[in-house]
Automatic annotation (TrEMBL):
It comes from Micromonospora costi. Keywords: DNA-binding, Transcription, Transcription regulation. This is WYL domain-containing protein. Pfam families: HTH_11 (PF08279), WCX (PF25583), WYL (PF13280). One of its GO terms (molecular function) is DNA-binding transcription factor activity. InterPro entries: CBASS_pafABC_assoc_protein, DeoR_HTH, HTH_11, PafC-like, Tscrpt_reg_HTH_DeoR_CS, WCX_dom, WH-like_DNA-bd_sf, WH_DNA-bd_sf. Residues 4-63 form the HTH deoR-type domain.
Amino acid sequence: MLETSARLLRLLSLLQSRRDWPGAELAERLGVTTRTVRRDVDRLRDLGYPVESATGTTGGYRLGVGAALPPLLLDDDEAVAVAVGLRAAATGTVTGIEETSLRALTKLEQVLPSRLRHRVGAMQSAILPLTGPGPTVNPELLTTLAAACRAHEGIRFGYQQHTRRAEPYRLVHTGRRWYLLAFDLDRDDWRTFRVDRIDRAPQPGPRFTPRPEPAEGVHAYVSNALTAAPYRHRATILFHAPLDAVAEHTSPTAGRLEPRDADSCLFYAGGDSLDSIAVFVALKGIDFQVLDPPELKDHIRALAQRLTRASSED
């Protein structure tokens, strides 16, 4: 009986980890036959878990949406992450979710083992959220977009008074704003959309086969789209310091860092004016060299002369 219960928990964990599972693969992971998998799936259904079956030669299972929320299986790290995430959500940029997050957090902490309550309490006591005015998003919109990303379902939505058709890929949070990375079907290219600028609820479309990621990789594409592409000027800076040292003074939304060697790194950024880029880079307090554009060097020389005159005695 203990072996069966442990196997059911393992099966539930697998079903929660991804959308679709072939029966043969589940049997291999659990070390049992496909017939045993079918019996275990029936047991989960009896316990209230809405496990759906797929027909066909291979067969398959997925954890569907039920009328009631069954218990979720979380390991220690996942439980701590959920608790800390709920605390962040209570004071974050998602509107209308603060009180709900606190209620859910209270329920979770009531059943946490003491060793985990101490971990959560230590992290919460050390975190001081400093929130300010800025754009917020509706939690229902976030969950709708996240579900479309997970299910590979196309969407049609309003964006700054225009209708857009896209294949959603991933939600990105920069600490201040939420962005949707998607393939824009009308422009036939990858795009990032600010979620707070979606002004008409997404409508579901047909499912799609995921496309290859952007050539430079998802992280580099999103970083470039947020820090360089929207601006009039782009710059490439060589910092004479290790990447980790520069990263301590640079947020992901300010620019993209790449390692060059053990003692230097490259910084790609954009700005509406060359002066703003010059000041931003200079204030890091790290030796640097402008690689591009050439006119940025002239602005830095002029800025240096202006600062020198300002500090000279009359």
